[in-house]
Write a structure and sequence with these properties.
heterodimer; A: mainly alpha; 75% helix; globular; B: alpha/beta; six-stranded mixed beta sheet
Chain lengths: 259, 378
């Protein structure tokens, strides 16, 4: 998909994303509050885990732990819900995929975008929450923007790839479901990779790990962590995005026939 | 089509060992379209007709680029819009207003364009009072009307229409047809797929007849419609375990065998019956249904003559009915069956044995023709 296409279909992208957002909270009592609810659940679980760990280890449980769990849980919840949602984005729009001509990449993209709106809402509340807890912002905090950009690129890349794969093989959505359920154990959301000593490299291979670790570093610990691994994440995400788009465009003409 | 990896991997292996083009298809595959070549000039309107599964929709999907052909090329000059589905992307929870914007952008309009035409679209649909109601509360007719109204405001160079004019009530259908005429007058090229042959002959001078993925005929619409009626795929000729069979059913008019008639014209219906075994007390029943499958007429040899007939082994008997077509303009299907009244047994039946097309100069609807004449105009 070239640049002229993106501009040509910007209205369509806007409307499809708008539909996803609007429909998600229509006829629901809590409405947009659900955007906060999911991250709060993950954060509460994280606090529980952290609290038990400090009990077992006999260390002091601090507010710092709550802050770092929140900072990791919100981007994580964005990633998980984006992948879950976009994997089905092509198959759930069956009639549009088979009957109307436009770049189908709009579906995974708008799925991620609509989750991004939820993320922005949740993140704004988190910022307020952190300020209440007494965390200020330093120059290092600005680096969080770069980290989130990498996370978004990685999420989009995976979404594009998985949505197309699921169109051909419905196995994909089951695999994704299983992997996402257990992924929290392989990703440093409730813990820090340094807990694993020499084995930390293995965890950092997961492109999300350095991003979450470094986010925690910038915003809570006020230091840059694992910068070489962040660079690895950035390169990995970018290359994945390029190849995902390439693959997607290549298989797109087969969509209507194989869906 | 492979729905899971388990099916796909063996298929992939099989694919790898294939040798030539002739092996391209597996036993369950077939060519949806094959050896098709035609061109359409700017401003022309072409109808595409054919029985179910002839490849009409597949052809449209290729024309508008949703599918890529396995072989061959398609060249389209200009902005092409396809109306393959009415109300594409409509979301039941969103209001009519919101869905107009959604559907419009999906069909290729910009939001500014929709905003400009919004009042016109709503006005055309006639749904002003319900425009802020979620479309899940719409009736299916209203749903279709809203979708159709958005679609006809597209202003493309080339418009591809797939069986979408038959939505809404009569007034709305007429409105849709008028709109199509004005789109044509505006210089657009139209490709029109429909089973509504009246609409096809009304809109298109030229038509293509598709049959099993091939173009059977490309020519003036009335010739193509004639040919379409003769290529009846449902006609069967099994003599397997029947005692008596319907061999041939033919329709004749003043000019010999024909399918198109003018109102009030006489139709001669020949029904040939062949005996496989000797059977007594038979009668031939004929009936006529309109395009909505309402039975509008039936009779039988026994009811007309008060006599049954019997048939010998390998004997062929021909019954000739004469019918006066006091029918309104439209499409009618004639069916026939061989029946024995006393034991209520059907020996053979054929439906639609023949399809006929009745024309009239008067624009009136309905199966009954009351030959309306306006004798006083204020």
């Amino acid at each position: 998909m070239d640049i002229s296409n993106i501009i040509k279909y910007k209205d369509l992208f806007y409307m499809i994303s708008w539909r996803e957002i609007k429909v998600k909270y229509k006829q629901s009592f809590m409405g947009i509050l659900w955007a906060l609810f999911m991250p709060i659940i993950i954060i509460s679980a994280g606090i529980l885990v952290k609290y038990s760990m400090s009990k077992v280890a006999g260390t002091q449980f601090s507010y710092k732990e709550i802050a770092s769990v929140s900072i990791k849980a919100i981007p994580w919840s964005f990633f998980v819900s984006s992948i879950r949602f976009s994997t089905n984005s092509l198959t759930s729009n069956f009639s549009l995929v088979t009957k109307i001509k436009f770049p189908k990449i709009i579906f995974p993209l708008s799925s991620v975008f609509s989750q991004l709106i939820d993320f922005v809402i949740a993140a704004s509340f988190m910022v307020i929450f952190l300020l209440i807890l007494g965390y200020g912002f330093s120059a290092k905090s600005l680096f969080a923007i770069v980290l989130l950009a990498i996370l978004i690129v990685y999420t989009i890349a995976l979404s594009i790839l998985l949505s197309a794969a699921n169109l051909f093989f419905r196995d994909v959505k089951y695999i994704v479901e299983v992997v996402l359920t257990f992924a929290i154990f392989f990703t440093p959301v409730f813990y820090e990779v340094k807990l694993f000593g020499a084995w930390d490299k293995l965890l950092l291979l997961n492109p999300i790990s350095p991003i979450l670790e470094c986010l925690n570093g910038c915003l809570v610990m006020d230091q840059f962590l694992y910068m070489e691994w962040v660079a690895y994440s950035a390169v990995f995400s970018f290359l994945l995005l390029l190849s995902s788009i390439k693959i997607f465009n290549k298989v797109e003409p087969m969509f209507a026939e194989y869906i | 089509m492979y729905d899971s990896l388990r099916d796909f991997i063996p298929a992939l292996v099989k694919q790898a060992f294939k040798k030539s083009e002739s092996d391209l298809l597996t036993s369950s595959e077939f060519w949806a379209l094959r050896n098709i070549s035609f061109s359409v000039a700017q401003g022309e309107s072409v109808g595409i007709i054919g029985h179910n599964g002839a490849g009409k929709s597949t052809m449209l999907k290729h024309l508008n680029g949703i599918m890529k052909p396995t072989g061959g090329t398609i060249t389209v000059n200009g902005k092409l819009s396809a109306l393959i589905e009415i109300g594409a992307g409509f979301h039941p929870d969103l209001s009519g207003r919101e869905n107009i914007f959604l559907n419009g952008t999906i069909l290729g309009m910009s939001r500014a364009e929709i905003r400009r035409k919004f009042d016109e679209i709503v006005d055309f649909s006639g749904l002003e009072e319900f425009i802020d109601t979620p479309v899940k509360r719409y009736s299916s007719g209203m749903h279709a009307r809203l979708g159709f109204s958005v679609a006809v405001h597209l202003e493309p160079d080339i418009l591809v229409v797939d069986e979408v004019l038959s939505v809404g009530d009569y007034v709305f259908q007429k409105k849709g047809l008028d709109k199509m005429h004005s789109i044509l007058k505006g210089g657009a090229t139209v490709l029109f797929v429909s089973h509504n042959l009246r609409a096809v002959s009304d809109l298109c001078d030229r038509s293509l007849l598709l049959d099993h993925g091939r173009v059977l005929l490309d020519g003036p619409t009335h010739e193509v419609i004639d040919c379409y009626y003769q290529s009846d795929p449902y006609k069967k000729s099994g003599e397997d375990d029947k005692d008596v069979i319907l061999k041939d059913i033919l329709t004749y008019g003043a000019n010999g065998e024909q399918n198109q008639f003018y109102e009030k014209e006489k139709l001669r219906l020949e029904v040939c019956v062949k005996g496989i075994k000797k059977v007594d007390k038979l009668s031939v029943c004929i009936y006529v249904q309109d395009d909505n499958n309402y039975s509008i007429f039936d009779t039988s040899t026994e009811r007309l003559t008060k006599n049954s007939f019997s048939i010998d082994e390998n004997e062929i008997k021909k019954h000739i009915f004469e019918l006066e077509l006091n029918l309104g303009p439209g499409t009618y299907h004639i069916g026939a069956l061989i029946y024995r009244y006393d034991i209520q047994k059907t020996y053979d039946f054929l439906f639609p044995a023949k399809t006929i097309f009745v024309k009239s100069d008067r624009d009136a609807r309905g199966a009954a023709n009351l030959y309306p004449v306006l004798i006083e105009v204020p």
